[in-house]
Amino acid sequence: MTYEKSMLLEVIGDTPENRVIDFLIEGRGIDYSKTDIAEGCGLSRPTIYKLLPGLIKNGIVRIKRKVGRITLYQLDEKNNRVKALVKLEEILLKESFEEAGAKEAIPASH
Questions:
Q1: How far from 83 is each of 21, 27, 37, 68, 89, CA to CA, in Å?
Q2: How far apart are CA 40 and CA 58, in angstroms?
Q3: Is the pTM of this model over 0.85?
Q4: What domains does the chain contain, in order, with CATH numbers?
Q5: 15-19, 93-97, 104-108 — which one is most confidently predicted on average?
Q6: From CA 10, how far away is CA 21, in angstroms rounded?
Q7: Does residue 95 or residue 19 have the better pLDDT?
């Protein structure tokens, strides 16, 4: 999977932590393994192993469930910082759609 930088990362900065948060925002409601997160973010698994404890401690990510030996993680949408980032993502998407619509509405000059 090729990682593509989102509008949210352009605003908040493209750091490994922000990539994980952005990936989980995009997949809200879905739980992911560490491997899923690493592949989705374009990061190595060791990087994910280093980042997740801090994100969990800060209430950004939560352990959703365990399936055998695999732990699955999810964005903690009850966290106020997460709520703010989700809202920012929605605003950026809305603006992007509005800009795309405005470009289509402008007739091409002959």
A1: 12, 14, 20, 31, 10
A2: 21
A3: no
A4: 7-105 (1.10.10.10)
A5: 15-19
A6: 13
A7: 19
Question: In terms of Cα–Cα distance, which of 66, 71, 61 is closest to 27?
Answer: 61
What's the 3-state SS for the chain?
CCCCCCHHHHHHCCCHHHHHHHHHHHCCCCCECHHHHHHHHCCCHHHHHHHHHHHHHCCCEEEEEEECCEEEEEECCCCHHHHHHHHHHHHHHHHHHHHHHHHHHCCCCC
Q: Tokens for 55?
A: 């994100």
Q: For residue range 41-58, what is the model confidence (pLDDT) as tens digits?
A: 999 999 999 999 999 999
User: Radius of gyration of the chain from Cα atoms?
Assistant: 17
